[in-house]
Amino acid sequence: MTGLEKTATILAAVGAINWALFSFDWNLIEKVLGPESMIGNIIYWLIGLSGLWLLVKVFK
Q1: What digits encode the pLDDT tens for the residues 10-58?
Q2: What SS3 state is found at 10?
Q3: What are the φ and ψ backbone dihedral angles of 34, each rounded to 5 degrees?
Q4: Total of domains in the chain
Q5: pTM of the prediction?
Q6: Three-class HEC string of 39-60
Q7: Domain span at 13
Q8: Are residues 50 and 7 in contact, defined by beta-carbon separation less than 8 angstroms?
């Protein structure tokens, strides 16, 4: 597993955990970085791109 794959997997896992916590009305990213922060938005984009990249790799 390359460094990119490890990073994408970790980011996708963080995104999945955040979605689970969001169902309890608790947002991990906002708690750590603050609401509507620029870094938070970048993290959300990276999580989304990681998920898409992993999905493409699964179907290759």
Answers
A1: 999 999 999 999 999 999 889 998 888 899 999 999 999 999 999 999 9
A2: helix
A3: 95, 155
A4: 1
A5: 0.82
A6: HHHHHHHHHHHHHHHHHHHHCC
A7: 3-58
A8: yes
